[in-house]
Amino acid sequence: MAIRLPDEEDVAYAKKQILDRKKSVAVVGSIFILIVIFFTTDLYNYALIIAQPTNKPGLCPLYDPIVPKSFIKDNSTVLTILNDESFRLQSVQKLANAVQVDTQIGDDQPDVDEAPELWEQFKGFHAYLEKTFPTIYAELEVEYVNTYGLVFTWKGINTGLKPVLLTAHQDVVPVQKDTLDHWTYPPFSGHYDGKFIYGRGSSDCKNVLIAILESIELLIEKGFTPSRTVIAAFGFDEEASGRRGAYHIGKHLEKKFGKDSIYAILDEGPGLTLDPISGQIIASPATGEKGYTDIIVELTTPGGHSSVPPDHTSIGIISELGYFIEKDQYGPIFSAKNPLLQYLQCIAVNSDKVPILTKKAILRAAFDKFARSKIVESLTKNPITKYLIQTSQAIDIIKGGEKANALPENVKLTVNHRISVETRVVEIHEHFTKRVIEVAKRHGLDVVSFGKTVFKGDGKSGTFIISSPQALESAPVSPANDTVWKYIAASTRHVFEDVVFTNLTYPIIVAPVVMPANTDTRHYWDLTRNIYRYSPFFATDFKDSHIHSVDERLEFDGHLQLLAFFYEYIQNIDTSKADN
Ligand SMILES: *[C@@H]1O[C@H](CO)[C@@H](O)[C@H](O)[C@H]1NC(C)=O
Ligand SMILES: *[C@@H]1O[C@H](CO)[C@@H](O)[C@H](O)[C@H]1NC(C)=O
Ligand SMILES: *[C@@H]1O[C@H](CO)[C@@H](O)[C@H](O)[C@H]1NC(C)=O
Ligand SMILES: [Zn+2]
Predict the structure, then answer these.
(1) What is the extent of the structural domain holding 255?
(2) Active site residue 20
(3) For the whole model, what pTM was predicted?
(4) Is 574 exposed, middle or buried (0-12, 13-18, 19+ CB in 10 A)?
């Protein structure tokens, strides 16, 4: 065999081979790097989201509308409530006149027995109700609980059915004197401009109270006789935590009917609005409430003349604590215990207007940490949704110091917390105590937390005392998947799809939410698990009602929708089929 020297062709061939090998090494290398990237970065997690199917059978079913027999026979009453001009005007009068009776209450009023004169305004309100709803006063049992709490009982003929409890409160928050000139119409005018009713209480929540009574009165007039007992109960100090009103009403009802004796409670709360994710009208009963605690920390240090001060006075030290507290914000917690997760799921599975990746991420959020972190990221961008999943803390009061030339011996800080549904009050108290101890260590101070000495300082610098005048655990979360819930959802769809909005191109999704604040229902936990803070009427923007501020008002269409809802709901649940 002749030996041949490599020619150009061979050289080219060899070069190509080397190049090919390099290429394949490069390809293998890149694949390897890609795999590493895929598993060490979020790409894998994103891929899981992309692969997530969007149907989840059984998750948040849409319940078909349920229609009362009376509506099928003759729908004219409901149509009159919603569309008849003269019905509207007499209803305007009922609410406007209710607003005109001033039922403001302050935060620290003494009890009814101690200072009867402070509560007498409620006599006027009762007289107004009695004059306005004579049929109710004639037909129903009326009880006065702790003098001004009102309980109306409309006895059903079937004692086997648990009573339903509809609630609202008679009191309103005070109007601040220095805001009086800012009101378009005086706060107790009940002025109606053809669209809105103005005044304190017009939307928080004499509207709910009057709508409940109007619906009952109308049902009596139309000859309805309930099988299921209907109770309407109205506290008179909800805005001051309900200790005199709802607390006593809760005890009274428990004594009369027993623990867990109530079918469902509907109290003031959210209703129907445009959901920002889907752009659709969504109904959202609140099935939970965040917890609450005010913590007071008081610091006492030796006094003295300001010409020879210590490096840090009590005011300086408590400021340091305040700074430290604000630097240490609570983080978001988002678990299945928070109704907000179900809210998002309900929209994800039932609306086709949600962007597909958002939908998939929501559906994975229940079990996939990464998907959940993406949802949390977007929820925390908006302060309103942020505080549905995070404990809030606000330093609201600071008091201390007397004189420019005397060292402050005593200073007090009050910090308000709204506690996430997953967290208990005691955890907040313990965490707060730890922060105080940190500061105490730097200044040789003692710390007494809830009556116990938890840190010993140098014995001469002073003492922190931590206490809490108010604390409430987050409310037990009410079911949003049982028959009681189904009847709320189905009645909502009936009223709002059949009558209020007749041209909707999609079904109304009813999805639970959590409230960052508390209602009178805090005193009713033992009466039933099925507590819904829900006032079903449509409002494009709830801020538009200026609750608790200047120009509180109510778009009157909403009042009529609420009345129509109660009218239909009471009939729909008047059967054992509505029981769990
Ligand atoms: C409803 O949900 C709760 C909690 O998620 C669950 O324990 C219960 O089994 C569900 N009930 C029904 C009837 O699906
Ligand atoms: C009300 O009843 C009338 C007569 O039966 C019917 O024509 C109409 O469509 C009904 N309206 C609604 C909103 O159901
Ligand atoms: C339904 O009708 C109302 C007026 O009655 C209108 O404002 C609204 O845009 C309509 N909605 C749809 C989806 O067509
Ligand atoms: Zn209220």
Answers:
(1) 69-288+475-578
(2) no
(3) 0.89
(4) buried
